[in-house]
Design goal:
It comes from Paractinoplanes abujensis. Pfam families: MEDS. This is Anti-anti-sigma regulatory factor. The structure is a single chain. This protein is an alpha/beta fold. The chain folds into two domains: 156 residues, 3-Layer(aba) Sandwich (Rossmann fold), CATH 3.40.50.300; 105 residues, STAS domain (Transcription Regulator spoIIAA), CATH 3.30.750.24. Helix content is 34%, strand content 26%. The protein contains eight helices and twelve strands. The strands form two sheets. A six-stranded parallel β-sheet has the order 3-2-4-5-1-6, with helices on both faces. Strands 7-8-9-10-11-12 form a six-stranded mixed β-sheet, with helices on both faces. Helix 2 links the parallel strand 2 and strand 3. Helix 7 packs across helix 8. The longest helix has 17 residues. It is elongated. The model has no long low-confidence stretch (mean pLDDT 92).
Length: 270
């Protein structure tokens, strides 16, 4: 397993996901790295990811393309046509091509299983010279376990989020764009140790710390106090930007957020 920021030019990686926002964060990190390297970046998907990418500060107008463009609008998914298109795009990208592929096309009724097998076998040949880097995205809700196992087996790299804590009630993981920590579920003081560890790493890695509480169902006073103390401990020129709903905002203010100049609270309705 690799984190997305460990991928190198020429890698062919597989991402399997269940959480759409986590998928978008990993996608944004992959795209952002490509722009930093001066590569051409193309995202083939039917999902409305362009607005999310713009919100994260990434260009999307020429980056996001409908998945059907890979084989031709109006036609049925065809592995040979897809590989020809990717070969042509790679050849016209002298500084390298970085692509993301939403593999849900393979779950369509008109796409036979043999097309997925043929595509993954043939596209693997395009990576030999390092001019192509790809992230193939598989939604666990759309594919059966056998297909997901095949996808993991046929890709030299498998990408996953860096997870600090995960159980039935709470998930805390690394957020890449903007850099920081993402928390979903129910956060109470009994689980705040994992949050402290996650925030400590973000403080070490990131100039400013972005704490995404947008998918938090509840936040108790003790856990809110942990967040406020972490922000208060930052140097004067660094900040913690916390995004959450109105209830999380109220709990953080009761815990003293209004008195910490390093803490910026952004309240967003769900």
């Amino acid at each position: 397993m690799e984190t997305v920021d460990r991928l190198q030019p020429g890698d062919h990686a597989c991402l399997t996901y269940t959480d759409p926002e986590e998928r978008l964060d990993l996608l944004a990190a992959f795209v952002s790295r490509g722009h930093q390297l001066g590569e051409r970046v193309l995202c083939f998907t039917d999902d409305p990811v362009a607005a999310d990418m713009r919100q994260r500060g990434l260009p999307a107008e020429e980056t996001v393309l409908p998945i059907e463009e890979l084989w031709g609008v109006g036609a049925t998914p065809n592995a040979a046509a897809m590989v020809r298109r990717l070969t042509a795009e790679r050849d016209r990208s002298p500084r390298g091509l970085r692509i993301t592929l939403d593999m849900c096309w393979a779950a369509r009724p008109q796409a036979g299983a043999e097309q997925l097998l043929a595509f993954e076998n043939e596209v693997a040949k395009l990576f030999a010279d390092g001019g192509l880097t790809a992230l193939c995205e598989y939604d666990r809700e759309a594919f059966d376990p056998v297909t997901l196992a095949y996808a993991a087996r046929t890709h030299p790299r498998t990408v996953t989020a860096a997870v600090y804590h995960e159980d039935a009630e709470l998930r805390i993981c690394r957020q890449h764009v903007p850099p920081g920590v993402r928390v979903a579920g129910t956060l109470d003081v009994g689980r705040s140790g994992a949050l402290q560890d996650a925030l400590a790493e973000a403080v070490r890695l990131d100039p400013d710390v972005h704490l995404n509480l947008g998918h938090l169902r509840s936040l108790d006073d003790g856990a809110a106090a942990v967040i406020v103390r972490a922000a208060a401990g930052l140097p004067r020129n660094r900040h913690m930007i916390v995004v959450g709903d109105r209830q999380a905002g109220r709990t953080l203010r009761v815990a003293g957020a209004h008195g910490v100049p390093n803490l910026r609270l952004l309240v967003r309705d769900r």
